[in-house]
């Protein structure tokens, strides 16, 4: 069962003891992402994520890697549009090492000027890599254009100009403004002694103090933009990504759309996959997915195909969705999609990393921990009629963004 504690400095700690495993996963979840950036420093959250692995006052980047590899552990991080997460998974006997190392990276990273310049080149290559991946590019262009009047639409990697202009001082100022205990959750799941974990966290995090922020963190609710966008690429396939209104993270409608996602394109047995790929063989890849944020959301349909098949595939997608809007789902279809949702959720909770991530993200963004039983109850309470209502309300044919990447005229 998940346990919650809030320290006097505002730091939140969520834990779940799982004695039957031999591992423990720990994550630092920080409310710093694209939405806390500006056009001038776009990409700074992701850049800082890189720099925390480049060496501290106590150990080099190589020593950080060797320290974790030496015990068979795993360390990584990722930046999203609303947060950054640093996490480790180790054997339970190495918990103290994991806590100390994450604290060292958070509080003592050097931000060496030479390493910053090197990393600008690395991130520049990462930006180029995304440009060379038409599927990734189609997804990024969709989000950026649907949220084009809001920071949610900024690129996670940043722009070449904004990355090049970042300085050490700008990064440290950004950390002071956003890497604060009241904007951080420590999430731990696995085999650990609660008293010993509390002792470790007390040693490394209880004295963490905030510094006055220089930024106003209030953001307007983003309005979605619709229309058509194309990016010419001299490649063999054309990549189509269609975006509709999605659901707010944690909302009842999010669970309705998760079932809808499974029915439309989220699984290999979904309507679009079976009809357009398996039966007609018109595409290599086709699937639907969801992007849920605390203030808005996007539901997407992606496919890639020979340019000569584009019109046919678009017509088939439109006709399939039109049919769904008219007749809704079958009872068997809805029940199968709900069982798929339950199964995939429970399988994700089988690992300590999955449980740590679920708790950390939920507490950071929603200020609550939805237990597995609570999630399953929400899934069990879903009703077909309500899901069909949500689908018709959100996936309006005249309110969509279509992004095309490839040989476009």
UniProtKB/TrEMBL annotation:
**Which domain of life does the UniProt lineage start with?**
Bacteria
Q: Which residues form the signal peptide?
A: none
Residue ranges occupied by any Peptidase M16 C-terminal domain in the UniProt entry: 165-341
PROSITE patterns in the record:
INSULINASE
Start and end of every Peptidase M16 N-terminal domain? 12-158
- What InterPro entries does the record tag this protein with? Metalloenz_LuxS/M16, MPP/UQCRC_Complex, Pept_M16_N, Pept_M16_Zn_BS, Peptidase_M16_C
What family does the entry list?
Belongs to the peptidase M16 family.
Would you tell me the protein name for this molecule?
Pitrilysin family protein
